[in-house]
User: Fold these one by one.
Assistant:
Number 1:
Amino acid sequence: MTTSPTGLYQFIRPERLRRRRAVFYSSVLLLTSVATWFMADLLWRDDKIRGLEWLLLVLFVILFAQVAVGFVTAMLGFYVINRGGDRQRITRVIDWGNEDIPLASTAIVMPVFNEDVSRVFEGLRVIYRSLEATGKMAHFDFFILSDSNKPNQWIQEEIAWVELCKQVNGFGRIFYRKRRQQINKKAGNVADFLRRWGKRYRYMVVLDADSIMTGDAIVKLVGMMEKTPQAGLIQTAPRLVYGESLYARMQQFANRLYSPIFLAGLNYWQQQDGNYWGHNAIIRVQPFMEHCALPDLPGSEPFGGRILSHDFVEAALMRKAGWQVWLAHDIEGTYEEGPPTLIDSAKRDRRWCQGNMQHSWLITARGFRPANRFHLLMGVMAYVSCPLWLLFMVVSTIHVFNQLRAAGMSAAAYEKYIWVFGHAFEIPEALFLFLFTMLLLFLPKIVSLFTTLQRAEDAGRFGGRGPLVLSTLLEIFFSALLAPVHMLFNSRFVFSTLLGQGVSWVTQRRGVEDGTDWREAILTHGGHTFFGLVWGVSSFILLPAFFWWLSPVLAGLVLAIPVSIMLSKGSLGAHARKLGIFLTPEETRPPHELGRLTQNLAECYKHMRPIESLRNDYGLLQAVLDPYINAVHVSMLRQRRPSEESRDWFALLRHRLLSEGPARLTTKETLALLLDAESMIWLHEELWKQPSSALAEWWRLAMRQYNVLTLTPTTALYR
């Protein structure tokens, strides 16, 4: 990495980058070619490959190539880490110990949609305090961009914003905005912010509702952008934290242990042609506004219409315009939360599946860089590979029985055969292919484990060498058990998308709560279990040897219900933590910011005292009844002059609300009242003026309970 006469940092030379990518793609091609040659040789019977065998070979090549991509990426990352790190990385543009970090105006934006208000605003408090501790706060503003469509959420967000600003002296630096129309989900929310305020800032740091970033990490990101004028976007690699269930703890352990070599390998070959994951990233505002407006795809949903997964496309558009996109994989202090259960993970994958399938339109889009086309392709294949794997196994099963019937062989004669992906081969011929495939699947995990075990300090951050080895073995076991379940989940999602079934955007569940109950598990996994039983019984009756080779896949399907329930339990996750299983460095040596957030949330949830009988409409109660909250809410509404017809409608709604109670109004009608400043002022005045006999019983109860309750805001007096 050198500096050119123009002062711009020159990263890797083009010819050297071409060599790196040649190594990457050639390695993938070589591994796939070797495996394909062995597979074709094994399928070659009677001097020809028949129709069904051609289908098997094509499916094998596609699936093995995807495995090879992951393996080569991991091995390149291991090579980079083993030699002390890659000199060609974005974090090297600044000498962190001996150079002042240049800064510029930066907006920190957090889009939210019906999220846990306490978690959102306590997270913001921690980020704000951490950034304040750097002494660089003058360069930063915070924006909470709400698309919440529940009245309770909306009012609680406003209260939390006011209280947070009061407690950290954040007025004029922390802003809250509630959109009237939720158009194009998160991408539309950010685009609306940019249209209104984007020109005031050089950069924006995009967060999710569950994101945490330290002040040091944010300052470093801005500094890297300032020192690299060619950079349009820098993506960090957030660590998974706050996993409570056994499933979430397993996922965050795997993320923390395995990701370093994969991320280092990814940066090795992609360099400035990186990707964007939608959050925990910094973006140069002007080129993003000029070049990253999302086009509408031809046709209607799910394949057409508005792009659901916007991040990959925005990265490709940024590169198309000539701006660099980097992965700062070695930046610490960037975190997010994962889904707590297998079912919640599948719900998230359902949304991602439709978004990634839409990218099939864009792989051949004019002007995109080859690396970005590859990112889009791999995003599509992450889901399409599952129905291809299912098809491969079903076709393999049919082919096996056809071979058995055609050859007239007994089940005992097949005992000398090995079964690779459900296909029978003689052991001397097939053993190499089987071991070769297993090597590519499991070697990256084993390499990650041994790399960490080499230093006692690194192993200690995972609880020690013994717990680390045990945790890795358990993660491998459960991952193998869950793989066929994910296969059927994603196969169904792909088929649903192909059949034109769109998906609605819902709030992601963050906390573990009570886990998955038996009813939910049976409804969700019942089909998996039935499919596994039918497949297993048929295989055992026709060919017991085939059944035993197929048993690892069948076990995951048949046991899907109890395994899903077990992994969802927070009590088992807590017990595993006590035993030192699935520990991560963020738990053994928690950063100050995560420790502070944990403490604040514990205090916050302990002091929250909702009125149980009024819980469903508690936000509306506060906005109408409480003079302070009513004033705050009205002050944040845009004053509009409704038509005479609208005024009559609002007047009718207001009288119905007071005389009949909020249960008789729809959510749409309640939101309409909350959006009308005149109505909110009138409701507050009339509620206190009218005799109790003129009010609904709900309001009389609300006033009695509210008067004796000392309200504690959702974000109480925490540091």
Note: The mean pLDDT is 86.
Number 2:
Amino acid sequence: MQVDETFLKNLPTSPGVYLMEDRDGKVIYVGKAANLRNRVRNYFSKSGDERPKVRFLVQHISRIRTILTETEKESLLLENNLIKEYRPKYNVNLRDDKSFFSLRLNIAHPYPRLTLIRTQKIKPDSAKYFGPYSSARDARITLNLIRMIFPLRQCSDRHIATTKRPCINCQMNRCLCPCTGNLDQKEYRRMVENVSLFLEGKNEELTKALKREMEHASENLRFEEAARIRDRLYAVDRTLQKQNVSFFHFKDQDVFVVLEEPDDTYVVEILSLRKGNLLAEESFIVRNSTIDEHEVLNSSIKQFYYNATSVPAEIIVPKNLERQEIIESWLSDLKGSKVRIRVGMRGPRARLIQLALKNARVSLEREKQKKSTENALDRLAAKLRLDTSLNLIECYDISNISGVEPVGVKVAFLDGRPLKSAYRKFKLRDFKNQDDPGMINQVISRRVSHSEEDVLGDLLVIDGGKSQLNAAVAALKDLAPESRPPVISIAKGRAPGESDKIYAYNRKNPLSLPNGDVSLLAIMKIRDESHRYAHSFHTNRRVKSVIRSNLDDVPGIGQKKRTLLLNTFGSLKGVLQATDKQLKDVSGITSRDVVKIREYFSQVDKTE
């Protein structure tokens, strides 16, 4: 309905939500109110809200729609839903349209598995979800830490259902081996409960539970099981001792602050503490010309907990919130117990506010540094006609000399910076000739086989031309279409001074990017890092191969004795020129070893 004095007078006085639209009918702002008439009229009255930002918003309003609710708490829920649906231009959007990471524990399965998923909204199923994590790196670090401490299965449900052979993790003692069918399900279930305690930050309960299990196993003479639990307990203790920040109040708290910067920029900083330990830090950059610091804080808290898997008992803020009691009531309903919002004016809470502000300033500097890289990658995404942001990029390269000792590597860049923990090496098999496309196909195929526990990046980059690109795309064919990331390749220019060329699948000609283009430079930087990593790996492989072919083939001479000989005489030539007495004087080398060395190289000389 058109906004005029008659419309404003006839607005209802009940709680509800109002949607402001522009001339094109697009929703540009969503708000809630305990009294719709008073709230909406306040925007247009001369004595109402005179902030320049509000006046700027009013200039763009052409129509207002209202939706009534029974209570103000219902209006808060509806406001959150509508903001998520319409993404209004002048509301705070704490998370954009990109998906985020969570850890999923499928507790309905007899042998639950912890996996990393990427989604826009948690599905209401029988699994437990932990997160969401704004950083893919944080989620992967947490997952790897869990796997180091708790040997949960990593093989797929299909492997469990169709085979009784032990998987590779079982053979490496990194899993309790449910795939063999010989595992006590109760023991595995107790471990799953401990994983849940760890991820929920209930460290004291976890330590007590592990001690009880260890004592019970020992009393029942199950000493091997007791030893495994003891090692697990030590690993948990070591992990907790590495905690960077600890506050000795043993509370579950979240801390919210907003740092206001020029040009209508706000940094929302969130610290999560569980049992007094600082477990997580998240920051969000909000750019909006029609809202102030107070509204950013209010909206951030409501949106942050909209899909959250856990709510702490206490939330600390720098100032009181608008209609704070309604937000407390809503959060208490989500948690199932009382939640209080406290203002950090003095004491430990004030120190937490200052710590959050310090982290917010660091986050802002980090944001400025990566902005130029983001702009370059955004331009590349536009060139490739992609709808998603290129946050995590994986680049693949191979290295070999005429097919000898071929290797492949993966490097990863997160937000334009190397993510060393995601680097991978591949020893290639079954190649006697230089088949670069075939090698790329094998590397990508092996990478895809681990995509469930290690989610593929937003873009795959291949070092090579169109044939390598086609081979990589062929390796992705078994993935569901919505799970296949876009793939490009980058090839060096053939003529002197010619720029490198970027190829995309199903596109005949390369992208037209001139020399010095920021998007091209960003991909070249990632490609050069993959080339360096591949070359280093291949060089090490060839060096080891040369040493092994000349000395390790001697019967009875293993890696330890080989190292002793080479360290003593400097090279294989020095070993062969040494006298028998000099060889026997080396600690660990026997007369029998000397005889075998002489016999082996005597046969080698005759063969040559």
Note: Residues 392-538 form a domain with the Nucleotidyltransferase; domain 5 fold (CATH 3.30.420.340).
Number 3:
Amino acid sequence: MFKKIKNKIYKFRGVAAGFLLATVCFVSIQASRTDSYFEVSKNLDIFNNVLKELSTFYVDPIEPGKLIKTGIDEMLQTLDPYTNYITESDIEEYEFQTTGRYGGIGANMRKAEDKVFVGDIHEGSPADRAGLHPGDEVITIAGKEVGGKEIDEISVLLKGSPGTQVVMKVKDVYTGNTEEKTIIRSEIELSSVPYSSLLGANKDIAYVKLTQFTPHCSRLVKAQLDSLKKAQPNLDGVVLDLRGNPGGLLDEAVSICNLFIEKGQLVVSTKGRVKEWEHDFKTTSQPWDTKIPVTVLINGGSASASEIVAGTLQDLDRAVVVGERSFGKGLVQTTRNLGYNARLKLTTAKYYTPSGRCIQTLDYANRNEDGSAGTVPDSLRKEYKTLAGRKVLGSGGVEPDVKVIDTPPGKLAITLYVKGYFFDYATIYAKKNKTIPAAGQFAIDNNTYSEFVNWVEKKDYTYKSETEIRLDSLKSAAVREKYYADIETQYKDLAAKLKRDKKQDLEKHRREITQILESEIVSRYYYMRGRAEHSLKDDLQMDKALTLLEKPTDYQALLRKPAN
């Protein structure tokens, strides 16, 4: 009897202790929330008082809106680069970035010194129909002189509601005549699928380039695949090119995956601090094809939704990923209305592919002492398994199954591009040549390259090579540590040897300079789709993707779990 009573006492003590612990936890949570609310309220009050004092007593008049935006922007910089304050004046640009649509004339502008010129023109746009050409000098827009203005200011003058008109005075690059052009603005929608084609030795590989995950882009991709399949019913594979694609809508990433995997398959999960942001996103439609071999091309510019597609198809062993490690953005943003037509785009969750990995590279919550965001070393990246048991890694982007490194442009090519010399010479070339071969076949000959070299040699394109930059760093360190006097002679000898002959450099880097120049020339005749088509020439990553699809045994071997 005594034992039973003692047990009851122990049970009562346990229940009481549990109740007490729960009460303490609840009170602690409530206290924590109260403290948090108090901190917010207190600091908002202080912020408001600071603004009132400045507005009343500061020596010069202040702009409250500008001051507050600066404060908000600085506050958000302590979080992550994807959490942004969007003012009413920025809404149109934000909408363009997320939808690919805007009201305007369909041409961008470029500056050279204090003059403004027409840059790329979108095919079939109002600017195209009005007869504007890349290289035309813009003198006035809506009666306002544009010389010396910044591109952002010019963009404001050009954009407007569809159906409204804008009058531009331009000097035609080909005739030299100056005339006024009245252009009716329209809604400009840049296609997220600028190019698709049948490739491979037998023209039986469907290629689709996707530049951004905008609304309904999955329909565009499917429409292109349907069109290519109609032209070639016996397709042997698909290449989905996501290189340089910064991402976009998560729903569209799910829909793109749905083209190649069954209905009801988990594609991605999101997890956040607030329960409402936790979701499992599954495919909802019948697929386009679940058997056809697929390769996905990625590089360091492939981010967010691009990584969801590449990572998911990799996790499910549905595609072979080719190229270079992706950017590593595993964060999800949501837009919240703030009133007065302002918005806050903020990070609300992280996303996880079917294997459970998050590919986020930078840790913004736990920064280094210098304020920079830390990364997880490759040796410490957590391992996950694909459906077939292949090893994949989290925290650091999507690693391709087949790595093919694309050599980035050198200092010389970048300098010529920034100076606008490729653009200017393409204009000269287009003056002389009314037509060129198809974009995929176009190539400049030796005479044309020699003409370009002779032309550009008269321009200023001074630059420092990577070796020279490092040599300068060596000199600075040597001076600082008082070693320079001992190595001065050798340093000067090495510096002299590194002084480049410009013409020699133009020949040494001929291949990459030729590729960029050809692309610029092609755009004069075939617009952006021509650039996309021409970019596939001498494309090592594309060549590897095609080779894999043309060798089914090699392709399948990459999707199997390797033997121990």
Note: The first helix runs from residue 2 to 57.
Number 4:
Amino acid sequence: MARDPVCGMYVDEEKATLMYTVDEITYYFCSKSCLLIFSKPEITYKRIKFFTYLSFSLGILVVILEYFISFNFLLPNLVWLLILSTPIQFGAGYYFYVGMKDAIKSKQANMDTLIAIGTTAAWLYSTIYTFQSLNILPVILPKSASGVYFTESSLIIAFILLGKLIEHNIRRRANKAISYLNELLPKKARVIRNGEEIEVPAEKVKKNEIVLVKPGEYTPVDGIIIEGFSTVDQSAITGESLPVDKRPGDFVYASTINKNGYLKIRALKIGKNTTISDVIEMVEKAILSRAPIQRLADKISSYFVPAVIAIAVFSFLFWYLVVGLPINFALLALISVLIIACPCALGIATPAAILIGASKSAQKGILIKGGEYLEKAYKIDTIVFDKTKTLTKGTIILKKIYTFEGYSEDEALKFASIAEKLSEHPFSKVLIDEAKKRNLEIPDPDKFEYFPGEGIKAVYNGHLILIGNRSLMEKNRINLTNITPILEGLEAEGNTVLILSIDSKLVSLFAITDEIRGEAKYVIDYLKNKGIKVVMITGDNNRVAAAIAKKLGIDEYYAEVKPQDKAEIIKELKKKGRVVAMVGDGINDAPALSIADIGIAIGAGSDIAKEAGGIILINNDLKSVIHAIEISKKTYSKIKQNLFWAFFYNVILIPIAAGALYPFFGIMLNPIFAAIAMASSSITVVTNSLTLNRYRFEYV
């Protein structure tokens, strides 16, 4: 079954007649009022505000006339009470009747059913009593009937609407993050077409067009700078507080602010494909998602309303027929049970916390795709980091070249670059860039073969070229004995060493290094101090892996891991009962990110990796791994608190509403207080969720 995203009630998809589709996702609703709240929140807010004021204005007059002043001008006092309370019952209470009607159509019961039955019972009893007292109707009610409950029916609706109004206000505050992001979406773009500079709507920019951005303007597309230099405020996307220097070759996001330079940008992502659009979509989906713990609330809600109606009817019959109390006392129990049991707090316990948590995270460039990831993050006890571009900066440099067999550095570099020319590996780019700096010619190889996790075999001008790691050399029977001390020394320093052989002769070693991120050591120390096991995976050999692990304080690592084997390591850790998060950025990390309990994708990585991740760090800051876990834990903690209070409230107060205190103290709960308590529970749940806004993204 689906869950109503507004009130949280269970909705049978097969029976449901009310639905709304956004971005190919269909949401189901228990009533038209919930559908209207979801699809047109501002219109609904204004209506609820109007009817809340109307209910209290007329309701206060009802209280005065019923309890303090007998007003008999032109008409009897009871008739004035009927006149004042009826607009509240059928005007302000219109939403509840519509909701009950929708529920009956769907052969289900919702919270509107409880409110409609409870208030109608009070109003109808009072109306019959009024007409019976005026001798307009024959005797319908028993002799035990006394007094009216116009105040109760009126103020119940007033207080419930007040609760909804406050809840709407809180939701609007919580949704400010999304509204703010929507406001950042650029409306116009300046592009060059047919040699002329023209202004077009931002969504009309075409891929690969050149976009001009002047100082102080918002960037309308995601793209690469091809000309110009500036500082760019990208805090809306990454959460960075300070502007970042940008120059040709750098990537810029849509909705970031060009501070002081004139930029020409080649559009790569446009319209709904930009990062800012992805952020908005993911946050909205996260807000409407549900954590697995919500299934408990859903299951209970599906049986809750029918059970409450049964308890209310039983209470009425027990006190009236068995105990023999007057009908108006028995009616109090029926109305109180129906009103106080309204499961609003139960329905919004999870969505309220997820809404605040997801919005808060998005403000700092952390996207949590849904409630299930919030719950899993709470249980994480193992985090696996890919090394390259995750624990390291990804700015790979060629540190040193060793040559043998009479080859010069330029000769060795040329052969290595020829072999690497058709490869997409980051190491290939380092060698080729160095060859270009030395003005070396790099023709295409005659033959090329790539061995994942090992290296490359190529043929050029009759020469067999091998470049890669020890495994590739050993498989091709290249003797490494003479260079082993040099090789081990370089690896012990944390360098990755590419070995080059030409025609089965070992001719060169290329020491390549990738700097460790400045924040990596802090992040790992923090996680370990929290009792979380940290594991590193790398394709480097054991010596390089050991050197990096030692620098970072990582006790467990896996070296010489081929891309296809990363997912297997995650599987093995999960088989041991570990709750595993995987942090990575590359295409080859995607399977492991998907298989892990939670995949955390670094934002600068590939789109495939980000698609596979449940949490995405757009800001590319490794510290955000800490923040993602902490905000997830705090959000999940709020969900548990909310559900506890929602259940606790119903378990404690339903028996009191049913009359449990009457045998001991002679007290029967007034339905007005039931309405106040019901509204207060919803407000308490959402207010508790709002305390998540106090979370600060700082070093802990």
Note: DSSP finds 26 helices and 26 strands in the chain.
